[in-house]
Design goal:
0% strand
């Protein structure tokens, strides 16, 4: 294993290209640093309000869902170790139209995470008197809070401009802290304040199965577990991607899932009964706007509260930092595939896609306006993220059939069965986000088609050499998939019309997903087109000046 601390004099691309400087620890810590962010600061609190103690089940279901998706990504990441990988797999399998679509989903997800981490930092900072004027009473940003948010976004971008090696050093140091603090909170709370009666005194599942399922998408559970793909996004800068990407992907999910489940158990057990005596949906205690730090104060662990308030700056900060990196790498991949102007693929002397970083800053600032609080943005990011992930199982099925002899450093056992299951699970998570979230996501998707589709048409009209091939035949299933998910959500029982009852809606989603999965496989690009797309990426990933 080669660590990021060693100088990368060999295996380095020529000046102006992405530099292969990151080893296994750097890749894994990029993903773990993304998983352990603001989600741990709010997730346990919000989940228990929606599901009661049965929120533990919600976390387990969420972890299993993410593991399924991560397993698929682990094989694909080893097969195709390219920068911005999640934006490219559908491009290989289904051509330009599907690639453009999932590329937009990938960029949308990455670009909106850094702003939400900034909002978490500012939200917890409200504990200090000097920061109370950064937030309104409803926890949205004031004008001065908005100014601080913009400065923090600029700081994320500034660190990224020093290059991936500096980022790896910075993120690794922050990640050690980000793992240590939740583990310390788990141990200290469990030893000093563990009340087993809390798990049944007001009912284990007071909101029933619907509460358990809704909490997975809307309370921050899936949002908290997101981030394993960061190692894959940095594949173009990995020292040994075929060996390290699967290990980093699966290892990061395992670490994150264990930590989050334990956090939920300890959070429930540590609460004083008076805080939920009127029902879990009405959970309240002093300082609960910063849930973990407030709880530490209530149970007499003031010194731990100080550490947690400090962590509320470091953990979201580290996650925002790495997602700023991811945003520029996804836009780099989009430009390499011809979906975005080539300026997004230009790198500076340190191998940094500088224009993508600038645009990630601009996008982050824009996000503060329609989504000025942490809770308002969580459901949107969860849905956009899982929609991005859904492209990987579809691509996996195509590659299993049409590229059976392609080198696979990691081969998923039972992959042909697990990949459609992963696709079904992804669509269930999207559905559980609720209609109120999905119609807003639909508007963002339309915006993406206007921007990227407009550039694609421009490139074709100008006969640009990198104009993407928009293969409508291979993507004929895509509009049916997107519109169908929206229609089921609208008619469903999670914020919709309620015409599709609970449990039956799961059956409908499962059947619909299987139909889309095999339809996509049947109409996918030919083996020759897939291999040509892969070869084109190898060529276009040469240095850009």
């Amino acid at each position: 294993m080669v660590s990021v601390e060693k100088a990368a004099t060999e295996d380095m691309t020529p000046s102006g290209g992405l530099r292969r400087d990151v080893g296994l620890i750097g890749l894994m810590w990029a993903s773990v640093g993304s998983i352990i962010g603001s989600g741990w600061l709010y997730g346990a609190h919000d989940a228990v309000m929606q599901a009661g103690p049965s929120a533990i089940i919600s976390w387990v279901i969420g972890a299993v869902a993410i593991v399924l998706l991560a397993l698929v990504h682990a094989e694909l990441g080893g097969m195709f170790p390219v920068a911005g990988g999640t934006a490219r797999y559908p491009h290989y399998a289904f051509g330009g139209l599907a690639g453009m679509s999932f590329g937009w989903f990938s960029w949308l997800q990455a670009a909106t995470v850094a702003p939400i981490e900034v909002e978490a930092m500012i939200g917890y900072a409200g504990h200090w008197k000097w920061a109370t004027h950064f937030l309104h009473a409803d926890k949205t940003l004031t004008p001065s809070g908005l100014l601080v948010a913009i400065v923090l976004m600029a700081l994320f971008v500034g660190v990224n401009f020093f290059g991936v090696r500096v980022l790896a050093h910075t993120n690794s140091a922050a990640t050690w802290w980000k793992i240590a603090v939740p583990l310390a909170a788990i141990f200290i709370m469990a030893v000093s304040n563990f009340h087993p009666a809390n798990f049944h005194s007001e009912g284990f599942a007071p909101m029933g199965a619907k509460g358990v399922l809704a909490a997975i998408s809307t309370s921050g559970i899936i949002f908290a577990l997101l981030g394993f793909e960061q190692a894959i996004q940095l594949a173009g800068e990995s020292r040994n991607p075929k060996r390290d990407l699967p290990r980093a992907t699966l290892g990061s999910v395992a670490i994150g899932a264990v930590i989050y489940v334990l956090l939920q158990v300890v959070f429930i057990a540590a609460l004083p009964h008076s805080s939920f005596a009127h029902g879990w949906a009405h959970l309240v205690y002093q300082g609960d706007t910063g849930p973990w730090a407030g709880l530490a104060t209530v149970v007499g662990l003031g010194w731990l509260a100080v550490v947690l308030y400090l962590d509320a700056i470091i953990s979201p900060g580290g996650t925002g930092l790495i997602y700023t990196t991811a945003t520029s790498r996804v836009s780099y991949g989009l430009a390499k595939n011809g979906y975005a102007p080539k300026i997004f693929a230009k790198t500076d002397a340190r191998g940094v896609p500088w224009f993508g970083l600038v645009m990630s800053f601009v996008t982050g600032v824009i996000c503060f306006l329609p989504f000025p609080s942490w809770h308002q943005l969580v459901g949107f990011i969860t849905s956009a993220s899982v929609l991005m992930y859904a492209g990987a199982p579809l691509a996996y099925g195509v590659f299993a059939d049409k590229l059976p002899r392609h080198e696979r450093p990691y081969r998923l056992p039972g992959g042909k069965l697990l990949s459609p299951v992963a696709f079904v699970v992804a669509n269930l998570i999207i559905y559980w986000s609720g209609w109120g979230t999905l119609w807003r996501l639909g508007l963002a998707i339309v915006l993406g088609y206007l921007l990227l589709g407009g550039y694609a048409l421009y490139a074709h009209n100008k006969n640009l050499p990198d104009a993407p091939r928009l293969d409508f035949r291979a993507a004929q299933w895509l509009p049916v998939y997107l519109l169908g998910m929206g229609l089921i959500s609208w008619q469903g029982s999670f914020g919709g019309q309620g015409h599709i009852a609970l449990w039956w809606d799961i059956v409908v989603i499962a059947v619909f997903s299987v139909v889309i999965y095999y339809w996509a496989k049947a109409t996918s690009s030919t083996t020759e087109d897939i291999e040509r797309s892969i070869d084109e990426v190898v060529v276009t990933d040469a240095p850009a000046h």
